Amino acid sequence: MALQGGPLAEHSHRMIKAKSVPNFLLRLEINRPKEAYAGMSSSSLSPVILFLSACVPKYPNFFVQFHMIIKTEISFWRTGAKFCGSEMAKREGEAVCVTGGSGYIGSWLVRLLLERGYTVHATVKDLKDEKETKHLEDFEGAKSCLVLFQMDLLNYDSIVTAIAGTTGVFHLASPCIVDEVRDPENELLAPAIKGTINVLTAAKELGVRRVVVTSSISAIVPSPNWPADVVKNEECWTDEEYCKQKGVWYPLSKTLAEKAAWEFAKEKKLDIVVVNPGTVMGPVIPPTLNASMLMILRLLQGCTDVYENFFMGSVHVKDVALAHILVYENKSATGRHLCVEAISHYGDFAAKVAELFPEYKIPRLPKDTQPGLLRAKDASKKLIDLGLEFIPMEQIIRDAVQSLKSKGFIS
Ligand SMILES: NC(=O)c1ccc[n+]([C@@H]2O[C@H](COP(=O)([O-])OP(=O)(O)OC[C@H]3O[C@@H](n4cnc5c(N)ncnc54)[C@H](OP(=O)(O)O)[C@@H]3O)[C@@H](O)[C@H]2O)c1
After folding, report:
1. CA 173 to centroid of ligand 1, rounded, Å
2. What are the sequence ranges of the domains in the chain?
3. Which listed residue, of 101, 166, 170, 377, carries a Cα 20 to 30 Å from 359's Cα?
């Protein structure tokens, strides 16, 4: 795997050091016993903070960041969230936040980040729902280095609380629905676009160093006006008008969210980098299935949908998580990063599933299911150049089907 050697090898442990806050003050705060805040509300702490921030006028972000740390600590006890607690004093790994940490890709990313020595703030929609938390709490290292936060993309304060104290953010949370939706604005567009702006605003306010934004090939296709003889790449953008006409709202949500992210980054001078994964499949960690794993499950059950406006190639979930870490850790990584094992049609994918698993009644689909899409190997050149060795389609399918079987989704 690409983690061995190359640019992802050896994550060096780094002290938590929020920008603009003197290190000794952060350490002081982190080492403080939790009893020190018992019974105190964040507002009753404000005079103390005001006094302290007045003492250090040299550090303009001090007030906000100090306040956030205290608010975060209080929220741990209130919500009963898992946290490093007294072990906080001992933690040495760099802290990063993963929004949508309970999701399909998010779970893999949290797991790999923990393995690499990071302290992870992962967001879930409902802390009381075991289906969102248990699989994360079971990870090795979770006890000491995973902190779960309840977050709603449209609730700015909940985002600030999750990001406070971190130096990097991986923004994955976004509704992922390829089936028809009744209310595109509320089900897809608002959480994707406003949610992204909320996350970036909080990251900027808290002095986060780099944000990795999870976009999608759905911000690249459908793009019917792209030149027919040129392989699609990071220069290509989804056609917004086409999406509106055809009522394909998920690609529109990802396109507008990514465009809003680039605009924000340029205007506010925030360092962001984008990953654009294809259809993500492979082993499943959460107890429920996400939209892309549902696609292969339905295919195995005989579904004939060809996902004309949604497919551009497949990618292993572990490679997607690795791609996120690669672009975060490599300061030379800039811009968008197409993340597919190859550009292919859904018809190619379905034919390979049928070849590998003849025991299922896989429908025969036309070969060219994505009109005009030129096939290409090594299409994700930017990630390959950063050291990612993509797992081929055959293995993606084997891992996905094996996982569906072992979790009881198919027999
Ligand atoms: N899977 C793919 O093939 C694929 C391909 C390209 C890009 N992506 C992108 O990758 C990211 C993760 O997708 P995934 O496949 O891992 O899907 P997923 O399992 O559905 O994960 C999405 C995550 O976002 C959270 N979320 C959704 N709406 C939210 C809201 N309003 N407030 C707070 N959290 C919210 C979800 O929480 P709940 O689980 O509680 O709803 C979930 O944890 C998304 O941005 C998606 O667009 C996915």
Report:
1. 5
2. 6-14+94-406, 17-90
3. 377
| Ligand 1, atom 21, residue with closest C-alpha | 103
Quote the CA–CA distance of 86 and 77 in Å, as a whole number.
12
Nearest atom in ligand 1 to 254's CA: 47
Tokens of 394: 């055959």
CA 339 to ligand 1: nearest atom? 6
Mutate to test the pocket of ligand 1, among 125, 149, 317 (most ligand atoms within 8 A of CB): 125
DSSP secondary structure string, 337-372? EEE-SEE--HHHHHHHHHHH-TTS-PPP--S--STT
d(C-alpha 116, C-alpha 219), whole Å: 30
Length of the chain: 411
The residues that are catalytic are 254
pLDDT band at 178 (very low <50, low <70, confident <90, very high): confident
Mean pLDDT of the chain: 84
pLDDT range class, residue 199, cuts 50, 70, 90? very high
Closest C-alpha residue for ligand 1 atom 39: 103
The two tokens of residue 266 are 């340029």
Q: Is 193 in the pocket of ligand 1 (CB under 6 A)?
A: no
Average pLDDT over residues 4-33: 31
Tell me which CATH code domain 6-14+94-406 carries: 3.40.50.720
Could you report the per-residue pLDDT of 95-136, keeping only the tens digit for each? 999 999 999 999 999 999 999 999 999 999 999 999 999 999
